[in-house]
Automatic annotation (TrEMBL):
Keywords: Aminotransferase, Transferase
Regions annotated as coiled coil: none
Entry-linked InterPro entries: Aminotrans_IV (IPR001544), Aminotransferase-like (IPR036038), BCAT-like_C (IPR043132), BCAT-like_N (IPR043131), Class-IV_PLP-Dep_Aminotrnsfr (IPR050571)
Assigned protein family: Belongs to the class-IV pyridoxal-phosphate-dependent aminotransferase family.
Organism: Mangrovibacterium marinum
Name of the protein in question: branched-chain-amino-acid transaminase
Biological processes annotated in GO: carboxylic acid biosynthetic process
UniProt cross-references to Pfam families, sorted A to Z: Aminotran_4
GO molecular function: branched-chain-amino-acid transaminase activity
Source taxon at top rank: Bacteria
């Protein structure tokens, strides 16, 4: 596999980050991640737009900000990618900052383990924690809270950690949350990462005849929902049938979730 090392294309195994880097010493950096399907980035233009937006929010710039599309295309070509995932990092190495902080750009392919098919058939479980991501509109390298809490879970059905503020739900550590109540879909609008899969779902719903709203999602509504699902690049549309010790709806993936998942997978395979 060939990756991009801030100006040169090299085998991924030879690419490294200096131990003195601010990204390591302070956990500072922008991140993006998307799927390659049929040799093309799946809605890559949206992911790259979000990457640029994340860099702007985090006050970062690279020498290749206007060349991201070309860099991605070359990594795909050199690695002969058909079905894989691509990671992009903008990592600042120097402590000093005058204006926007200079960052190094890294782009490389990776493989991701598939989620257990049984989770899609039977539904996954989420565990809640009171936490609000800093600058949630930016996709950053800071996954510490979610990773720490996930490492404490022994139940293989636990797919992710769900963040709340004690009153309302925001998002999972690696995805967006949707609730279904009386046939209508609700998803949080504020203090969340604008997920690409989330956006595609919201675009699909009107044509499917499904009402939806972007609004506050209370813990009460979450636990009392008829259906829940999480959207993300790796999970796609993952049904959720349990949150903490509470079963959701019938305890099985619901019809609206299954309909949305089917439509999304059709979109993906026809892309």
């Amino acid at each position: 596999m060939i990756g991009f090392n801030n100006g040169s294309y090299e085998p991924v195994a030879t690419i490294g980050v200096p131990v003195t880097s601010l990204s390591i010493n302070r956990g500072y950096g922008a991140f993006e991640f998307f799927e390659i399907t049929g040799g093309r980035p799946f809605y890559g233009e949206r992911h790259l737009a979000r990457f640029r937006r994340s860099m702007q929010i985090l006050n970062l710039k690279t020498d290749f900000d206007d060349q991201l599309e070309a860099v991605v295309a070359e990594v795909i070509r050199l690695s002969e990618l058909q079905h894989a995932y691509l990671k992009l990092y903008a990592l600042p190495h120097e402590l000093n900052c005058n204006g926007r902080r200079q960052a190094a750009l890294y782009v490389f392919p990776t493989e991701m383990p598939l989620f257990d098919p049984m989770l899609y058939k039977e539904g996954a479980k989420l565990v809640t924690h009171c936490h609000q991501r800093f600058l949630p509109e930016a996709k950053s390298t800071n996954y510490l809270p979610g990773q720490f809490w996930m490492d404490q879970e022994a139940d293989p059905r636990v797919a992710d950690v769900l963040y709340h503020n004690g009153r309302t739900v925001q998002e999972s550590s690696r995805g967006n949350i949707f609730a279904v109540k009386d046939g209508a879909v609700i998803t949080p609008a504020k203090d969340v990462l604008q997920g690409i899969t989330r956006g595609l779902v919201l675009e699909m719903l009107p044509a499917m005849g499904i009402l939806h709203t972007e609004a506050e999602l209370s813990l009460e509504l979450l636990y009392g929902a008829d259906e829940l699902f999480v959207s993300s690049t790796t999970k796609h549309i993952l049904p959720v049938t349990q949150v903490d010790d509470k079963h959701i709806g019938s305890g099985k993936p619901g019809p609206v979730t299954c309909q949305i998942r089917e439509q999304f997978m059709r979109l993906k395979y026809e892309y």
